[in-house]
Records
---
Amino acid sequence: MKRITDVCKLIRLPYLLTAGFIMFATREMIIRPILAINNHSLQVSLFNFSIIVLATLLLIAAGYIINDYFDTKHDRISRPDGNIVGRKMERRSAIKLHTTLNIIAIVLAGYVSYRVGYNKLTILFILASGLLWFYSTSYKRYSLLGKTVISIMIAAMPMIVILYEIPLLSIKYATFIQETGVSFLYLLDWTGGFAILLFLSSLIMNLTKDSIKRELIEEKRMQLSVKIVIVLAYVLLITSINFLVIEIFELAYLAKYFLIAAVGLPALFSLIKLLTSNKLTTLKTNYTLSKIITVGIIVFCLFIPYIFKNNLL
């Protein structure tokens, strides 16, 4: 039982469940209601979609394992009890588990890619596996580069869902496309917007967390370049929320107020604190708020079916 607990801790089970929810929310709360407007339906079966989600989660789990394997002194000092590899799991066993999970993930992704008739999508999983490896071995040493790579991969999760849908939708509704001249690329507007918000919130959260680690090992305070990037990310996030509230959700009061309360206000408060203070306590507060912002963005998906159903655009 303890070994199972250690493995769950190693692969960051709560984060995996969150990743799975993001993908299911993208499919059920964004893509499905948009398609329903034109009496269209999802074409990737629930079974195949579940396989893609599983493949993604296995890839992420493998990334956490290899990250623990090549852990840096930042992590060993900031969370001394956090490391599993080398303490509770042999390093050789960790590498074997990492390799096995990667192979299974790529095979599963290859199967679904074949089923949708677009084998090239498998390359995305191969590239992701490589990026996670290089992140753990080198990229993570460079705060901006490493955290940007991770944030891009988090933002890619909603995009994976739509990339597997579009080929089958284009085949199923080829007549509709010919008659109207409208392709299903418009789905990228909403999923892309969701992905951008995830990218910004993830970048803020990860850079803030990394700055806290640097403070804890008494290296130096937040680097100016990192602070500038976080400030820009906050500004872009607040601007995006302002655009959504004013231009799109003018009539969707419930969605509007939730977006302001759960994302806009915490982001504005965090930005002000970041500009006025650089203390460790401020960074910790901002990190907590960044997690609230990320959760708020994810939960916001629950409002999208309501918006489309009631024609509140």
Note: The longest helix spans residues 143-172.
---
Amino acid sequence: MNFDHVLLIGHGAPVSAEEVVPYLRSMNAGKNVPEKRLAALARHYELIGGASPYNTQVLDFKGRLERELSAAGLDLPVFMGMKNWSPFLKKSLAEIHLKGFRDGLAVPLTPYRSAVCGAGYKESLKILCSEQEMEGLRYQFIEGWYDEELFIQAESEEIAAALGALPPSARSEIPILFSFHSLPIHRHRTDPLFHYPGEAYAASALVAKQLRHSRWSVVYQSCPVSSKGGWLGPGIEEEARALALRNEKRVLVVPLGFLCDHAEILYDLDHAARGVIEKAGMQYLRARTVLSHPKITVLLRMLIEAQHFKR
């Protein structure tokens, strides 16, 4: 299938303090979340500046990708649609349909194939495109690029930059925690989410190999307070406490499961996990997320280009 536009699909986040509570209410609709808990979640956003930089960073990436595609001779407009906040995916699809585009290439803002399913991006897009007013609109997906060389290089370069804050003698000894968003444990091998831990481990191993760093582990974060049943672990706080018991002096956290900053990075890691690490007597360091890294723009252009000329 040839395509006439590109659609970036993301989670979405509040861009102002006024949007935080409506966003939290929307995200927790039907879950009977107490007002006290919503107020506590809103406080998280206050601690990271009042809102989230997620949408702004995606919008900046959209512009860079459009310019990269144009320079490569691909005249493809790029749209962005968010599943959980404005610009909502449905509104973006309506705009795309109104402009006469019909065949799109969807690019979820995660390198992990299983995370695409976990976020419900494919299912949401399928449901919306089946609506009568979206007649004729269809998509193919680019997903599962966690093992691509340019992604591994971009992550490795951000880690190397973070390690640059340490004396050379300490860089090879610091434990690296590759952090991913926790998900409920699924026991059925036919479930796409079953592959998520494997993808997380594979990406982490490739980055560690690129860095020639032997001290690393995979951890999970952001497990909901109200969660019931088994969730993927070990949790980052649990692993940090174990490192402290082994008399480690510092920890480098790498948000390898995330492409850009949002509350799960700026609060769950930089505030909550950092508090646990520092309380345990260790120094907290974190590598930057990679959506703003030039190699990610080049990589997505190459993946789009390959799909565009695929026969």
Note: The first strand starts at residue 5 and ends at 10.
